[in-house]
């Protein structure tokens, strides 16, 4: 289910892809989405690094916890960069890494714009709370400004509804957002689920804590959500 005409091709003919997870509104699951995609890509053979431009350092702390667990599918490198160092760092890492994931703070800042300006893909998590939906006009203005600087970036909203959302609830959200912005809306989403909190607290991905090789057991819905988003990005 998605708004007609809103799906975006994610294929890029580049050696390195730069993903930016951004929303000037905080508390929408940016870091949760970013660390899951980074860990899943690393586990599938990618050479991944996270650039943390949020001074709270949530992604950096997750990476520190993760790298204490050598039994996991490889460490995920993470560094912090601010101001002019953001652009310098991205340019320097493009030749080394297959995927660069940039975490941004929950506000409209110069670092958010710098990151967006260098991105191949911009993912915008959005919850369905009244406050977030009221914020769409501001988000749309940011999107239009950044399209002038980086018109080739693949930009998409990824909804973060409450746990087990009803189909009609999601459709209403798609319709309301589509009325207020031309930002494409992905046909995948990641509801709030306990597994994401359990995993990030340990420095794991949700797939690592909730997946199973036993086909007779049910995979946690949170893992399925993240697998769907990974498939949306990488095909």
Morphology call: globular
Tell me the β content: 15-25%
Number of strands: 7
Low-confidence stretches: 1-13
Mean pLDDT: 88
- Annotation field: number of helices: 10
TL;DR of this structure?
This protein has 235 residues and is of the alpha/beta class. The chain is built from ten helices and seven strands.
What does this protein look like?
The protein is α/β, with parallel strands linked by helices and 235 residues long. The protein is built from ten helices and seven strands. A seven-stranded parallel β-sheet has the order 3-2-4-1-5-6-7, with helices on both faces. β6, α7 and β7 form a beta-alpha-beta unit. The radius of gyration is 17 Å and the shape is globular. Mean pLDDT is 88; it is low at 1-13.
Features:
alpha/beta; 10 helices
Topology:
Elements: E1 17-21, H1 30-43, E2 48-52, H2 58-66, E3 77-80, H3 85-93, E4 99-103, H4 110-117, E5 121-127, H5 130-134, H6 136-149, E6 154-160, H7 167-180, E7 185-189, H8 194-202, H9 206-210, H10 221-234
Parallel strand pairs: 1-4, 1-5, 2-3, 2-4, 5-6, 6-7
């Amino acid at each position: 289910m998605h708004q007609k005409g809103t799906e975006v091709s994610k294929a890029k003919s580049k050696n390195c892809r730069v993903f930016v997870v951004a929303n000037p509104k905080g508390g929408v699951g940016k870091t949760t989405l970013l660390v899951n995609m980074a860990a899943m890509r690393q586990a599938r053979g990618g050479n991944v690094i996270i650039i943390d431009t949020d001074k709270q350092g949530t992604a950096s702390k997750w990476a520190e916890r993760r790298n204490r667990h050598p039994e996991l599918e490889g460490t995920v490198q993470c560094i912090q960069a601010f101001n002019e160092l953001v652009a310098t760092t991205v340019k320097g890492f493009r030749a080394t890494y297959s995927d660069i994931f940039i975490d941004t703070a929950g506000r409209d800042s110069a670092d958010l714009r710098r990151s967006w300006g260098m991105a191949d893909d911009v993912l915008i998590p959005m919850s369905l709370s009244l406050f977030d939906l009221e914020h769409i006009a501001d988000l749309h203005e940011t999107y239009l400004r950044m399209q002038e600087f980086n018109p080739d970036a693949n930009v998409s909203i990824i909804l973060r509804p409450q746990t087990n959302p009803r189909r009609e609830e999601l459709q209403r959200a798609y319709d309301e957002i589509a009325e207020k912005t031309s930002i494409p809306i992905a046909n995948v989403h990641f509801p709030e689920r306990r597994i994401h909190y359990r995993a990030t607290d340990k420095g794991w991905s949700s797939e690592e804590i909730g997946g199973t090789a036993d086909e007779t057991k049910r995979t946690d819905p949170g893992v399925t959500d993240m697998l769907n988003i990974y498939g949306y990005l990488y095909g």
